[in-house]
């Protein structure tokens, strides 16, 4: 499973990005690991957003400690917001996650945008505007 994301300026342009290979697991676990690593605050997995803010007893014991860690960060005195973003409006992050899932690197920081990702950045920007 892979994780990936992009840091953008106020106009949506590329500043930096990352791709990561988290090993075997589900897409929900990949998104939660990315949040736990402080690299993703927007998630295209609506279930993850609901899980983080859920007040009821947690239904998946195997990832309860990870959820509690993320919740403890959200309780600190800083401005943090976890929100849902449609995959169609965040194709660059999706591309980077797929890149990570096929990578030999546990984590790779990209100072410049991968060539194959450039058209997706322009499309993301057009969908945001």
Automatic annotation (TrEMBL):
Pfam families: RVT_3 (PF13456)
MF-aspect GO terms: nucleic acid binding; RNA-DNA hybrid ribonuclease activity
Domain RNase H type-1: 3-99
Record-linked InterPro entries: RNase_H-like, RNase_H-like_dom_plant, RNaseH-like_sf, RNaseH_domain
Family annotation (CDD domains): RNase_H_like (cd06222)
Name recorded for this polypeptide: RNase H type-1 domain-containing protein
Organism for this UniProt entry: Lupinus luteus (European yellow lupine)
């Amino acid at each position: 499973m892979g994780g990936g994301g992009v840091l953008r300026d106020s106009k949506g342009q590329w500043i930096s990005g990352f791709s990561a290979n988290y090993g075997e697991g589900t897409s929900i676990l990949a998104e939660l690991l990315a949040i736990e690593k402080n690299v993703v605050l927007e998630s295209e997995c609506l279930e993850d957003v609901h899980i983080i803010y859920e007040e009821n007893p947690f239904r998946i014991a195997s990832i309860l400690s990870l959820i509690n860690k993320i919740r403890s960060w959200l309780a600190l005195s800083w401005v943090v917001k976890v929100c849902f973003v449609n995959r169609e409006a965040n194709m660059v992050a999706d591309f980077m996650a797929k890149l990570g899932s096929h990578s030999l690197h546990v984590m790779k920081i990209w100072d410049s945008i991968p060539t194959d990702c450039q058209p997706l950045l322009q499309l993301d920007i057009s969908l945001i505007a």
